[in-house]
Amino acid sequence: MKKRIAVLASGSGSNAENIANYFSNHELIEVSLFISNKKDAFIHRRAEKLNIPCYYFPTKQFNETDDVSGLLKKERIDLIVLAGFLLKIPENMLRAFPDAIINIHPALLPKFGGKGMYGDHVHRAVVAAGEEQSGITVHYVNENYDEGKIIFQATCEILPGDTPEDVARKVHALEYKHFPCVIEKVLNA
User: Fold this and answer.
1) Would you give the distance in Å from CA 75 to the centre of its chain?
2) Does pTM surpass 0.90?
3) 105 is catalytic
C-alpha cells in the first residue's frame, strides 16, 4: 500500500505542485490531498489541474476543532507536509501526528525563523543582515515556530548586490530541487 502525503499551503501552491508532480508516478508514495486555510489561494486551482482533492478550512476551524485531524486520519495520511503554510499547527494535530509533520523554511535555521518570518520577510531580513549565504531548512514541526528538529539544509550563495528577489529565486530553486527528495527519504526512513 502506498504511503500517503497531505500537503498544506496558504498561497500559490507552487511547492505543493512540484511535490505532487515528483510523486505522480511513484510506486510507493502519493500525494493524496491538499489543505489550505485560504479560500482564494491559488493552490485550489493547481489542485484542480492536478486532479488532487483540495480542502479549505478557515483558520478558526483549523485551530479550534479536530476537523482537520479527523480528515487526515480518515484519509490514512502518513506524512503532513507544510509548503508555504502560514498557520501554527495546533496542539491537537501535533498529538495526533507525532513526528509526522514537516515544514520547509526559506532560510538556514535557527537564523531568520520564528513568528512573522516567512516568504519575502525572510529574504529581506537575510539581505539586510549582510549574510553571505541563505538556503532552505526542512524540519519537523513542534509547538514552536521553526524550532523542530532539523532534517535537511541546503545553501546558496548571496552575492554583493543581490536583492531579496534574487535571494528568493535562489531559495525557490533549492526548494524545488530538494524538498521532494527529502520527503521521500523521511517516508522511507
Assistant:
1) 19
2) yes
3) yes
Please tell me whether residue 78 adopts helix, strand or coil conformation.
coil
Residues 137, 109 contacting (CB under 8 angstroms):
yes
- Tell me: the pLDDT tens digits for 17-39? 999 999 999 999 999 999 999 99
Of the candidates 104, 138, 91, 99, the one whose C-alpha atom is nearest the C-alpha of residue 9 is: 104
- Which of 105, 139, 172, 178 is catalytic? The answer is 105
User: 92: Cβ–Cβ under 8 A, 6 or more apart, which residues?
Assistant: 66, 69
- The pLDDT tens digits of the residues spanning 71-112 come to 999 999 999 999 999 999 999 999 999 999 999 999 999 999
Question: What count of other Cβ atoms lies within 10 Å of the Cβ of residue 91?
Answer: 10
The answer to whether 106 and 117 are in contact (CB under 8 A) is: no
Strand intervals (E) in the chain? 3-8, 29-36, 54-56, 79-82, 101-105, 133-140, 150-157
